[in-house]
Amino acid sequence: MSSPAHRLAVYLDQRRRMGEPGVVPDQFEPGELLASLKSRLAAAPSVPAPRRGGRAHAGGRRGSRTEAAGPASRGPVPPPSRSPSITPDSPPSPDYAALRETALACVRCRLSEGRRHVVFSDGNPAARLMIVGEAPGAREDATGLPFVGQAGKLLDLILASVSLSRRDSVYICNVLKCRPPGNRNPLPDEIEACARLLKGQIELVAPEVLLAVGSFAAQWLTGTTRPLGKLRGKVYSYQGVPLVVTYHPAALLRNPGWNRLCWDDLQLLCRVMDEA
Ligand code: SF4
Questions:
Q1: DSSP-based three-state secondary structure for 205
Q2: Which domains occur in the chain, in start order?
Q3: Span 191-225, pLDDT tens digits
Q4: Could you tell me if the CB of 191 is within 6 A of ligand 1?
Q5: What distance in angstroms lies between residue 215's CA and the mean position of ligand 1's atoms?
Q6: Nearest-CA residue for atom 4 of ligand 1
Q7: What is the pTM of this model?
Q8: Most CB contacts within 10 A, which of 154, 193, 208, 217?
Q9: H/E segment holding residue 143
């Protein structure tokens, strides 16, 4: 059963292919955006979900093998293909599986003490686009998945507005894999301790484009300490991978006036993905 956001992404992609212009208004409140997109979805004809293991959505790269990593009970995760000789039916990469196992057992920093789950990633490891956020919150810690709750729903709908879906066409992770207590900001030594996991994910997933959401991801990936408002609006490079930065969806929920800026960032992201 596909999620509403996934069905919406497929529907919007169909409309886009038929020549319909953008569907997100220039100015919107999160509630208005949700209502607008949900009403479009309700009015849309039923869209069959792509078969798992079949061809990827437009944003996918090498098949739609979907990862929902986090709780150990979810089992091994198929890694991305690394060469043309690797097909969607190839066996899992031992490197990627090993990295995930390393993360799930990690005790390199104090955050291991209070966590319920290591939140490794979600989405499709074969996707062209990799989204990097900040750190798990309470819901993420409880479920083992990044970007759940209201911020996660908003992220899914924002992605759907540009015909991307979490299930097929993006890979999502955070700078930190464990929840800071009380949702405080990550500390520098925690970011340093966890960086090897993020570096490993970027290397093994090998995305064509990176999107940093929020200050911590943007600053780590750009190697600067500049505020997000000064960083956004440009294309950077992380070890040769084009990088766009924008606001964290949780920040958008608190600051609806930034939605237009986020929309501009998404348009920049789309142009970069078209050129990648
Ligand atoms: S936050 Fe990162 S470095 Fe710290 S315990 Fe969790 S996985 Fe390990």
A1: helix
A2: 30-46+54-75+93-275 (3.40.470.10)
A3: 999 999 999 999 999 999 999 999 999 999 999 99
A4: no
A5: 19
A6: 109
A7: 0.75
A8: 217
A9: helix 138-143
